[in-house]
């Protein structure tokens, strides 16, 4: 832009560049999601190569959640100190390095340790991005961009389930790990080029100590409510998506078909996320979207597992479970940004939400499996466990509505 250009044109160009950088950060989040979901399609090869038991396989699947489960809030505090963009770059470097290292190792324990390190990289990438997006885009575009961000996980899941299975049909899991390492390195270089550097610290602005930020963040009931709802949502969604191939296998559906159906169910979750962004932008209160999404998940889980529907009806019900349930994560991200106690606690709030989500993903599948085992292996009682999670989330969402309605507008909090 030449120096004599009028201010309005310069502002429009800068806004366009900022929105482009924010949308690219959604792709970066998808890249991190590929690392989370790369193990399920590769698990048969890993089990055969390392002679993994079912329990060891479970640890390999869940190890990536340990970072978010333990370090969500601490990493958020680190990100506030070193800069959000720099945190994303470090996370991408960790993901690229550990994925490549994992491809070179020949011991199951070392691969498991690399998997845990990848969890740290995923956290350092995904946790700061919502705060980065808020910093980049104008307030009137935040809800819609966050709708895209809420889709990063389901879209990444679809991509890796489909392309990962194709790569594995041609070669080994080591090639898949190596390709993801190269892709992540490309994302790192593009992030350094497209995303503006972190702003310099303002010497006139008081710096809060980490303990002050923790006390302020965890002293807010709204932060706890958003994090708990995220955990309750993530626990039931990951349980249903994770067990779908097993359920299909029990019904005699082949492995390739089961994988494709599972990918479709995971992918439609993005529709709900994008819809939430548009509805929030139009002024629909966030707590109402949470109630609508969670209530639909209860009804659809019952229809899929407890109503005795034929296979086609079950698939439609699970599809709606995931699609309408997608209203929840995008809404929660917007609420997390707007209900944070202060601008300085935005990243810690998202970090605490990440810990809630990771806890739900860690606890949800075992709870569902326990209920099914207690029912003698009958999957029709799955909906009672997921329904209990969703019902609790509805109560908490209504509480958010009661706490914010008198002084709010739009997404459930004061407009940013």
UniProtKB/TrEMBL annotation:
Q: Where are the transmembrane segments?
A: 17-37, 57-77, 89-113, 149-169, 175-195, 216-235, 247-268, 289-309, 315-340, 383-402
Domain Major facilitator superfamily (MFS) profile as annotated: residue spans: 21-405
The answer to whether the entry has keyword Metal-binding is no
Signal peptide residues on this chain, from the entry's feature table = none
Annotated membrane topology: Multi-pass membrane protein
Keywords assigned by UniProt? Cell membrane, Membrane, Transmembrane, Transmembrane helix
A Pfam family this protein belongs to?
Answer: MFS_1
- Per its UniProt record, what PANTHER family does this chain match? CHLORAMPHENICOL EFFLUX PUMP RV0191, PURINE EFFLUX PUMP PBUE
What is this protein identified as?
Answer: CynX/NimT family MFS transporter
């Amino acid at each position: 832009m030449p120096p004599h250009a009028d201010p309005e044109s310069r502002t429009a160009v800068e806004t366009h560049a900022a929105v482009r950088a924010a949308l690219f950060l959604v792709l970066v989040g998808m890249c991190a999601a590929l690392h989370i979901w790369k193990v399920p399609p590769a698990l048969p090869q890993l089990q055969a190569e390392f002679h993994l038991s079912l329990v060891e396989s479970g640890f390999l699947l869940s190890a990536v959640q340990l970072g978010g489960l333990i370090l969500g809030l601490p990493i958020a505090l680190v990100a506030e100190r070193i800069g959000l963009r720099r945190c994303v770059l470090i996370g991408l470097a960790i993901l690229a390095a550990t994925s490549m290292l994992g491809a070179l190792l020949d011991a199951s324990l070392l691969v498991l340790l690399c998997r845990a390190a990848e969890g740290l990289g995923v956290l350092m990438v995904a946790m700061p991005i919502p705060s980065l997006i808020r910093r980049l885009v104008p307030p009137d575009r935040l809800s819609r961009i966050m709708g895209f961000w809420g889709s990063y996980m389901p879209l990444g899941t679809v991509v890796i389930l489909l392309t990962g299975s194709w790569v594995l049909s041609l070669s080994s899991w080591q090639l898949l790990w190596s390709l993801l390492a190269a892709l992540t390195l490309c994302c790192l270089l593009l992030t350094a080029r497209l995303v503006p550097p972190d702003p310099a610290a303002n010497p006139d602005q008081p710096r809060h100590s980490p303990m002050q930020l923790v006390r302020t963040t965890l002293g807010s009931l709204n932060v706890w409510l958003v994090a708990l709802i995220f955990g309750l949502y993530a626990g039931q969604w990951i349980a249903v998506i994770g067990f779908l191939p097993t359920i299909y296998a029990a019904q005699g559906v082949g492995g390739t078909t089961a994988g494709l159906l599972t990918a479709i169910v995971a992918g439609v979750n993005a529709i709900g996320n994008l819809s939430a962004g548009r509805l929030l932008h139009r002024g629909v209160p966030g707590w109402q979207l949470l109630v609508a999404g969670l209530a639909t998940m209860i009804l659809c889980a019952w229809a899929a597992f407890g109503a005795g529907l034929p296979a086609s009806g079950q698939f439609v019900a699970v599809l709606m479970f995931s699609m309408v349930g997608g209203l929840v994560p995008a809404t929660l991200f917007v609420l997390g940004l707007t209900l944070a106690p202060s601008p300085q606690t935005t990243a810690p709030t998202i970090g605490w939400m990440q810990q809630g989500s990771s806890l739900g993903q860690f606890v949800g599948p075992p709870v569902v499996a326990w209920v099914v085992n207690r029912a003698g292996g009958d999957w029709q009682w799955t909906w009672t466990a997921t329904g209990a999670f969703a019902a609790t989330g509805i109560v908490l969402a209504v509480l958010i509505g009661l706490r914010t309605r008198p002084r709010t507008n739009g997404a459930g909090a004061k407009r940013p």
